[in-house]
Amino acid sequence: MADRFNKVLLLDGRGHLLGRLAAIVAKQVLLGHKVVVVRCEGINISGNFYRNKLKYLAFLRKRMNTNPSRGPYHFRAPSRIFWRTVRGMLPHKTKRGQAALERLKVFDGIPPPYDKRKRMVVPAASEAHSQGMLPHKTKRGQAALERLKVFDGIPPPYDKRKRMVVPAALKIVRLKPTRKPPWSRREKRRPSSATARKKVTKLAENHVDAKIAKYRVLSELFWPIKINTHL
């Protein structure tokens, strides 16, 4: 009996429906099982992608007016979106619910050591085996969590250019802009100190003779006056 509850259920979230998988996972962690869900970026949401995106953007506007840091907190990573969905199906404000939530681990991609272990699927929550349950809009196309444009300003494992999750990039780093803003480029062209200004002036004086040579010839033809180039 003890071995049954010490066993970790490793689930592959790709191709499963968000609510159905969350309901099954919530029941298992309440029963005492430890559950690990990987590839949460591949979890699908039934219905139209555009309407799902509008719902999520409406959720992002929910905040406390006087102090938004108090919540609600809007998770943007697919793994945290799934974790929050499971939390809503648990009595997470009680000790029993908190203990159940601690038995759940969620990941984007497949980090080690789970990449070398056999993963399971849940047929009742998978779109390929759920035709006998309540109907959903499979014909209209489903929105995977990775399609929601909620990754603005957060680090990998999501790669915007490839539009996919990179499991190897698990280190949290800030996204830096590829191009610098125009004001920073403008400051580089301008000398930042008196020494640099003198250096630029001296360099210009050394090249001024070659620049005005043709104009000097014309001026000497009409006005035979010596031009002082070093003013």
TrEMBL record:
SUPFAM superfamilies attached to this UniProt entry: Ribosomal protein L13 (SSF52161)
GO molecular function: mRNA binding; structural constituent of ribosome
Region (Disordered): 177-200
GO CC term (a single one): cytosolic large ribosomal subunit
Alphabetized Pfam families for the sequence: Ribosomal_L13
The entry's keywords: Ribonucleoprotein, Ribosomal protein
Record-level GO BP terms: negative regulation of translation; translation
NCBIfam families in UniProt: L13_A_E (TIGR01077)
PANTHER family attached to this UniProt entry: LARGE RIBOSOMAL SUBUNIT PROTEIN UL13, RIBOSOMAL PROTEIN L13
Family recorded in the similarity comment: Belongs to the universal ribosomal protein uL13 family.
Database matches in HAMAP family: Ribosomal_uL13 (MF_01366)
Protein known as: Large ribosomal subunit protein uL13
Taxonomic path: Eukaryota, Metazoa, Chordata, Craniata, Vertebrata
